[in-house]
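lol so apparently i was supposed to do this last week
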Amino acid sequence: MKKIILIQFLLLVALYSEARELRIGLFYANSPKRVTMNYNVGRYTFFSENKSYKTLSNKTDKIVFIAEGDKVTAYYNNKTIGTNTWFRLEKNSEQNSLTLTDGKTTRPYQGNFVVYSIKGKIKIVNEIAIDKYVEGVIKGEAGYGYELEYYKVQAVISRTYALHHQKHKYEGFDLCDHTHCQVYKGINDRSNISDAVNQTAEEVLVDSSLNYINTLFHSNCGGNTVTTDFVWSKRLPCMERVKDTFCLNSSQAKWKKTVSKSSWISFLAAETKKPTSYFSDKKLNFEQTERKEFYSVGNQNVRLVNIRQKYRLKSTYFSVYEIGNQIVLIGRGYGHGVGLCQEGGIVMSKTHSYRDILYFYYQDVSIMNISKVEYYRLF
Ligand SMILES: [Zn+2]
Ligand SMILES: [Zn+2]
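anyway here it is w/ zinc ion bound
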């Protein structure tokens, strides 16, 4: 019996690992009318609806796609080859890649490509193995020059995020390549990033019900992370308050901003629907040693996230000092403060493992292989 279960499990692992691809919407922020694909590595078969075109296999081969309404016209080596609702380029090996450009950015990508048009804008869906995608995300989101353990943290987080957030199903893909989802910049060429992804292959963060968690992160928490209800309306599990001493000397640990007292009072009046005279004779000073949700003056409370948004502040973790006609804000950290503190994680990675870091910033979670998660979910 045990043997049968083991065989079933191994079969499932093989099946899922084989099929695990994501569909990524490329050039999402630019919405180009025209995209060019240049030959890079390997042979690509090129086809559409009922038609097969020439194989893309020479160094000089290129295809230009131009959107017109809900159709796309393709030009193969400068010759028109047809107008269709979609075109597809399919790789014949995992190493294949094409260089794509929309005139603003030019990058090599691996995997398969589907090209179509929505309202005169080219849509390109890149079908890519999840770990190749994760490598491209780390390149886009974390940058270069960190410890291997830190890249492993980012690998587990990005992989989990990709499975948790699939925000573009209605547009025909899973995630876009922009900050709206995760910044994805195509093929990664750094060996420590690929090592981190390979050494954490399949690993994701799940809660006790085996759901992929919403792996939120930010640049610097200023010494305290915060729960999601302080930032948005809903309290999400697995991201409790953490006292973080690792990020205190990092580059985004402190900030300062000055605003005029008249602007400050007008804003408070508008937020609370009180006359400005209500605030004119009140003490406007405010201390935040621990993170708070509201700024309080008299019996009025204003959400700190609203103040952050209005004055484009780096964080909600600030104290207020009234100095003459000025309001001086002395702040800590950068970002919403929920989940992983990246600068804290970077410092921690010099002395701690990626597992320690993940379990420090996320609570009641397990690091698990995707195949295992999917297998246990069957019962
Ligand atoms: Zn998106
Ligand atoms: Zn921190």
